[in-house]
Amino acid sequence: MNSTAPSKSDSLEPLPPIPAKRYFTIGEVSELCGVKPHVLRYWEQEFTQLRPMKRRGNRRYYQHHEVLLVRRIRDLLYEQGFTISGARNRLGEAAQNSRRRDASPGDLADRATDLDLQATEHDGSDLQASDQTIDLPALRADLLAALALLQSDTGRRD
Q1: How far from the centroid of its chain's Cα atoms is residue 140's Cα?
Q2: Which conformational region is residue 106 in: left (phi greater than 0), alpha (psi within -120 to 50 degrees), or beta?
Q3: Which positions of the chain have pLDDT values less than 50?
Q4: H/E element holding 140?
Q5: CA-CA distance, 96 to 74, in Å (whole number)?
Q6: Beta bridge partners of 145
Q7: pTM beyond 0.90, yes or no
Q8: Contact call for residues 81 and 2 (beta carbons, < 8 A)
Q9: pLDDT value at position 130?
Q10: Looking at residue 25, what DSSP letter applies?
């Protein structure tokens, strides 16, 4: 059995929530994503999108979006059965689709659907419990209103 791939029983266990902090060490990311540190270092070589900040003696510091990317890579490789090359291609396609959507104005309904899909994928369960609660539907409505304002302002210059 490959020592880097988790067993089926490991894959059924949910990953721990991602704490609300700005930077994570490689050990923290390892625990949050269920992969060993040497696997993370290898993935940095294989996936150009994964570039943690390096400071003091080449210590790696991952940001929240990179932790999410590591989880996505883990899902592609371990859960969906992609090869490294296939996962790299899938992430590249996703990035191209994202850029293509951002380049064209697009339909607000399509973007709202995308937000709905992302909200179901990310149900907020990885947020730390605190005194504040996040009203996702209200946040979504505010973001859509801001997007509509931005799109209406791009057509005219004052």
Answers
A1: 18
A2: left
A3: 1, 7-9, 126-127, 129-131, 156-158
A4: helix 136-154
A5: 20
A6: none
A7: no
A8: no
A9: 47
A10: E
pLDDT digits (tens, 9 = 90+) for 44-81: 999 999 999 999 888 999 999 999 999 999 999 999 99
Angle (CA) 126-66-62 rounded to 5° is 100
CA dist 117 to 28, 67, 113, 146, Å? Answer: 28, 20, 6, 19
pLDDT value at residue 157? 47
How far apart are the C-alpha atoms of 11 and 131, rounded to whole Å? 32
Q: Transcribe 44-76 into DSSP letters.
A: HHH-TT---EEETTTEEEEEHHHHHHHHHHHII
Measured CA to CA, the distance from residue 29 to residue 35 in angstroms comes to: 8
Is the CB of residue 109 less than 8 Å from the CB of residue 101?
no
Residue corresponding to tokens 């266990």: 13
